Amino acid sequence: MREFKILREQLTSRGGGIEIDLTPLGFSGHKMSAYQNYLGGGMLGKIVSNDTIRTQCTNVALQLEFSHRFKELDLIGEKLMKLFYKKMNGNLKGYRDVQNRNYASY
Fold first, then answer.
1. For the chain, what is the domain count?
2. 22 within a domain of the structure (yes/no)
3. Boundaries of domain holding 68
4. Residue 100 DSSP one-character state
5. Radius of gyration of the chain (CA)
6. H or E stretch including 23?
7. pLDDT tens, per residue, the chain with 106 residues
8. Closest CA to 104 of 43, 28, 23, 18
9. Residue 24's Cα: distance from chain center in Å?
10. Is residue 104 part of a domain?
């Protein structure tokens, strides 16, 4: 897989996020982000991802156009979440433990 084209990146002790352009990966004009919320008490939640294709669930034409590629989007999302974790922590040690947490405290 090609290297991600990062559009925005914010990493803090209270979480943050990273956003990439999906155009170089064959999803012209679309973006994906991975982010992590602050749960409180010094604890961060799990890292989640979203994309501009599936968030537009009422756009039936868009959903039909890309529905056969949702698995590919899931794989890109997993790689992006791992990249975000690695940028926050320097390595992937503990990634699975973080992914067992809630993503929000409410």
1. 1
2. yes
3. 5-96
4. T
5. 14
6. none
7. 468 999 999 999 999 999 999 999 999 999 999 999 999 999 999 999 999 999 987 888 888 888 899 999 999 999 999 999 999 999 999 999 999 999 888 7
8. 43
9. 16
10. no
How many angstroms separate the CA atoms of 7 and 86, rounded?
17
**d(C-alpha 41, C-alpha 13), whole Å:** 12
Within a domain: 11:
yes
Place of tokens 């959903």: 63
Q: Is residue 103 part of a domain?
A: no
With vertex at residue 71, the alpha carbon angle to CA 62 and CA 2, rounded to the nearest 5 degrees, is: 95
Task: Check: pTM over 0.85? Answer yes or no.
Answer: yes
Question: Do the bridges between strand 5-12 and strand 43-51 make them parallel or antiparallel, or are there none, so unpaired?
Answer: unpaired
Whether 33 contacts 50, CB under 8 Å: yes
